[in-house]
Amino acid sequence: MHILAISGSLRAVSSNTNLLHALAGLAPSNHTIHIFGGLADLPAFNPDIDTAPGPDAVERFREELRASRGVIFSTPEYAHGVPGSLKNALDWVVGSGELVDKPVAMFNASPRSTYALASLTETLSVMSTRIITEAGTTIQLMGRNLDAEGIAADPELSRALTAGLEAFTRAIEAQMSIAEPGPP
Ligand SMILES: Cc1cc2nc3c(=O)[nH]c(=O)nc-3n(C[C@H](O)[C@H](O)[C@H](O)COP(=O)(O)O)c2cc1C
Asked: Which of 11, 20, 73, 77 to mutate to test the pocket of ligand 1 (most atoms within 8 A of CB)?
């Protein structure tokens, strides 16, 4: 199963991006997690250029969403909200609909980011994604200075991430078996 992961942070040493890289490394071989790398390339959303096809960077983003079975987010909180770069990316697919019915999960590198989590939940709900609540996973990385390898090597953190990923893929597989039932 191919999963797209989107970090809301553009920082080179982002704890949220490190979390997603750790998750990708922990994924079993039947699942691939690709970290979206184009957040900073997306132009500021403008309905006047929200066309089909849209700007190249937007089309690449839309294609990566279409190619994924599910999307995992991990975002910091900025000023009690979601970083503008992440909200901007989401605005680009409100009209085109790549996230409609898409299973999504919210991971989180800081238990303090409650406003961002609530805001992202609201946005993803109104965009008609399928939020897999039980897969949502919060770990504490703030101030710990851990890279992806360090996160994956920590038994408690890796256990929490693996459990979240398993809940996510299980929910997607259950949905797929309902949508595509096998022979009677
Ligand atoms: C401009 C700015 C605003 C922030 N606002 C909040 C906030 O409202 N609440 C909070 O808990 N943390 C806030 N933070 C702290 C970040 O959420 C925190 O440093 C986070 O771990 C950064 O994530 P990253 O390591 O993935 O970049 C803010 C940081 C910045 C730079």
From this structure: 77
| Dihedral angle, C-alpha 93, 96, 102, 104, nearest 10 ° | 0
Domains of the chain with CATH codes = 2-179 (3.40.50.360)
Contact 65, 98 (CB under 8 A): yes
Tell me how far apart the terminal alpha carbons of the chain are, to the nearest angstrom: 24
Q: Is 13 in the pocket of ligand 1 (CB under 6 A)?
A: no
Residue type, 71: V
pTM attached to this predicted model: 0.96
| pLDDT over threshold 70, residue 183 | no
Distance from Cα 113 to the centre of ligand 1, integer Å? 8
